[in-house]
Amino acid sequence: MSIMTEIDQPWIGKLLRTGAERFILPRFHAVVSSRKPDGSIVTSADIDSQNFLQDMLAARYPDIPLLGEEMTRDAQEQVLHHHNVLWCLDPLDGTSNFAAGVPVFGISLALLLNGHAVMGWVYDPIRAELFSAVQGEGAWLDGVRLETRQAPNLPHCVGVVDYKRLSRALTGRIMDERPFHSQRNFGASVLEWCWLAAGRYHFYLHGAQQLWDRAAGALILREAGGRITQFDGTPLQENDLQPRSVLATLDPKLHQTWRTWLDHAPEFPNAVL
């Protein structure tokens, strides 16, 4: 029996909702935050959400270990490189938004099998939206199947661009040439993946994304029909902890247009400066 058939998908969705209702939403607008060694913000909601979800998953699926954002790097490496099946959890993505009172944040959970996401869930507590996907079976928003639509030509597109993590050269070129109509940055990667999959904009550029930021969301977009690579056109890796660049679009034609545009960048754009 495949491990995927053993996973109770409705139960996972209810678990994420419960975690948000108990540990995240009650603390919104009443947040005490601190900074991790890398400078990023962490709150008690991040820690308590991860502990709750980890405990519940371990009780239901004791043979599947968990890799969580709030674990130490050594612990993350141990789980990733010594287990063929594991959970990958971001207990609260968009923590800076959450701490500042911006209502854009989410929970992301993926099941990784042999280094690849095969099941994924992203829950948006503010809008009570649950996105999910199963490899080879499709992606859904609250049970309604997601199917990406054809995007317009690049000059007419709206997308998400995370300028903070792009190289100075690439940022300057985008600002000078602005090859698209308009851009946004919502500050919550796990939702940005899903909103693209739902057709709420047309492309996504991110210069350095962590595994827990992309594992579930990238699967959801792929299963909805989207196209994903790194900036240089290579596949987006799922089996390591290195930050990876993201070029994601609603359709292959728009993706190729972006690849052509990036190939003429003055320097390789993956460097984060």
Structural classification = alpha+beta
What name does CATH use for the topology of the largest domain? Fructose-1,6-Bisphosphatase, Chain A, domain 1
Number of helices: 9
User: How many domains, as an integer?
Assistant: 2
Report the CATH architecture of the largest domain.
Answer: 2-Layer Sandwich
Based on Cα principal axes, name the global outline: globular
Can you list the strand order of the major beta sheet? Answer: 3-4-5-6-7-8-9
The sequence of SSEs as H and E is: HHEEHEHEHEEEEEEHEHEHEEH
Largest sheet: 7 strands, mixed
What is the name of the CATH superfamily of the largest domain? Answer: Fructose-1,6-Bisphosphatase, subunit A, domain 1
According to CATH, what is the class of the largest domain?
Answer: Alpha Beta
What does this structure look like?
- The model is unreliable at 267-273 (pLDDT under 50).
- The protein has 273 residues and is α+β, with helices and mostly antiparallel strands.
- Strand 7 (129-134) and strand 8 form a beta hairpin.
- The longest helix is centred in the N-terminal third of the chain and has 17 residues, at 44-60.
- It has nine helices and 14 strands.
- It has a seven-stranded mixed sheet with strand order 3-4-5-6-7-8-9, with helices on both faces.
